[in-house]
Amino acid sequence: MQRSFRLTLWLLFLWMFIQQQSHAQEDLGLLVGKLEKITEDTGRVFLLNRIAMAFADTNYDRSLHYAREALNLANKINYKPGIADANKVLADVFLKAGNIQPAVNYYLISIKVFSELDSLSMIASIYNQLAKSYEMQGNDRQALENYNKALKFADQSENRYEKAFALNYIGGVHYREENYKQAFDYFLQSLMIREEIRDSSGMAASYNNVGEIYFLRDEYDKALEHYTKSVVLNKKLDKPQWLAINYENIGRVFQAINQPGKALEYYKTSLKINREINNITGIVTSLSSLGSYYNKAANHLTALRFYDSAFSMADRHKLAAQKSNAALGLSETYAGLGQFRNALDYYKLHATINDSIFNIQKVKQIAELEARYEAERSEQQLLLKEKENKLLERNVKIIGLRYIMILGGLLLLIIIAILMYGRQRIKIKRDREMMVKDREIHKTQRKLMESELRIKNNDLMNFALHIVQKNDFLQSVKKDLKELKANCKADEQPQKISELFLKVNQNLRMSHELEEFQKNVDQVNREFFRKLQNRFSDLTDNEKRLSALLRLNLSSKEIATLNNISIKAVEMGRYRLRKKLRLDTNEILTDFLQNL
After folding, report:
1. Of the candidates 429, 482, 484, 1, the residue with the CA atom closest to the CA atom of residue 209
2. Of 34, 38, 45, 56, which Cα lies nearest the Cα of 78?
3. In this structure, is residue 274 part of a structural domain?
């Protein structure tokens, strides 16, 4: 359920970022030609920034070149609007290329300069971009903090577009933390604004997100209504990636309301679209959804085929989260097939991959904190230079330098304390998760052992019945021989019959199979005998063995035949056993032994 939503957010991040910057995509030749004619410094800074953004999607190196040239020129002439824009452009370029740490640094500097210019609307926009950067790193805490800052500045500047953007993604953070009520409130607020400003792409995303909450609440009609609205808009916008997500979500609704035919149709349509646009992550997600569908339909062999394809593709393309999900699906599938060893192996693999993902996220968080520290340190260095110039003019350079050093030292101590605290919290969280996973693995192992014990008990029962049937047969032969001996008149026949009679008696007295059976009884019921000994220490060995045979649901006649004794002897044994076990007259001896 969360996989589809996270994919929606990821695609929305990329698309809205491109949409926000699309105004900068102009004819490159025309822009470069204009650059040669402009001699005025501020106009040149403005044009360099536009050229940098125009190259952002096609030529990363040239884009960085023009953005840095703009920043150098703006700093040289101390042109604050140009400095702010150039830092934002550099951040945007790095973010497009997936270099998140430098993007964070430049966004922070840009926010500082725009704050000096009191440009609230631009600050709101940059805080949204900064929050998006943290979210791409998996740092929801920092993302939520910056989305709330964006929301505050969007309200102050009455920028409804950025406000809707921030509300939607705040809802997304709460959704991932399973705070569904808060997530729903933020999604609805974002949707209302987007409907009022007629933001079609934003509305499509919000309809899908609201539909997710209705799905979790089992309000399937409302969920289907909102998913369908999203489909209509995404078709108009020609966004196949979003349509694939919509169709998969609709498939989940139909599966939940027990319309498997329609559910399968939408799942397959989602997979077809993802394959047409070669969306690897979408393909793996669709394959896993189909595997889950067939598992719920108890068609484990077909589910195995889809999950195996999803696992292989995720492994080939190094999609850790999708590989972990496919491994969990394979574990459930093999469990459904009764192949518990394979089920346990894939569950362990799922747990291992999740641990690796957790470690990667931990490293990213540490790197993000280090990057933030570097950005703040760079910002402090910039402030230091400005203050040094002022202090030189006022002849108070020494006092100013001491102040900056003290401030920097305190900041460093605070950051170190935050890092140590954060690492400790991460360690505690990881230890807790490991304990939960260990309990789940032990639970699975216990189920496997119980299954093996049931199989051994069944084998023991079959073996016992085999011995009983054999003894019954030999008793019957013995009876027939008696009759033959009594009715036979020939001189030689009595002697032969007596010999045959003797052999049958010897066969009946042979204890090889009985000894083997008793050995198996002792092995399988070792734990049972231990409990008997602890609770009823005065039981004899024969009474313990009788308890084990009764626990197998053998009748008195079967026990008598098995031990070559009379039924009356078995009944007397049962009577003595009931007395030693101190059972009431209304308690069933067999039920008591089986529940022990």
Report:
1. 1
2. 45
3. no
Confidence at residue 472, expressed as pLDDT on a 0 to 100 scale: 63
Domain count across the chain: 2
Across the chain, mean pLDDT equals 80
Q: Taking a C-beta distance cutoff of 8 angstroms, is the pair 88, 126 a contact?
A: yes
Q: What is the DSSP string of 160-200?
A: HHHHHHHHHHHHHHHHHTT-HHHHHHHHHHHHHHHHHHT-H
Residue 554 counted as domain residue:
yes
Check which CATH number belongs to the domain holding 546 and give it: 1.10.10.10
Query: Average pLDDT, stretch 79-98?
Result: 89
Q: 46-65: b or e for each residue (b if 16 or more CB lie within 10 Å)?
A: bbbbbbbbbbbeeeeeebbe
Q: At 49, is the pLDDT very low, low, confident or very high (cuts 50, 70, 90)? A: confident
Distances in Å between the Cα of 66 and the Cα atoms of 78, 101, 262, 328, 468 are 18, 20, 53, 48, 94
Q: Return the minimum-mean-pLDDT range out of 182-186, 431-435, 481-485.
A: 481-485
Cα–Cα dist 334/387, whole Å = 68
In a domain, 109, yes or no: yes
Domain boundary among the residues 67, 83, 118 is at: 118
The mean per-residue pLDDT over the stretch 294-308 comes to 92
Helix (H), strand (E) at residue 440: helix 397-487
* CATH number of 94's domain: 1.25.40.10
Question: How do the residues of the chain divide into helix, strand and coil, expressed in percent and rounded to 5?
Answer: 85, 0, 15
Query: Which two tokens mark 74?
Result: 């703006």
Question: What is the CA 463 to chain-centroid distance, rounded?
Answer: 46
Burial class (CB in 10 A: 0-12, 13-18, 19+), 572: exposed
For residue 466, CA distances in Å to 460, 513, 561 come to 10, 10, 11
Average pLDDT of span 307-330 = 91
pLDDT one-digit tens code per residue, 8-21: 443 344 334 344 44
* Percentage of residues of the chain with pLDDT beyond 70: 74
Range of the domain at 50: 1-118
Contact 264, 252 (CB under 8 A): no
Q: Is residue 334 part of a domain?
A: no
Residue that terminates a domain, selected from 118, 134, 149: 118
Res. 218: pLDDT tops 60: yes
Per-residue pLDDT tens over the stretch 101-137: 888 999 999 999 999 989 999 999 999 998 888 888 8
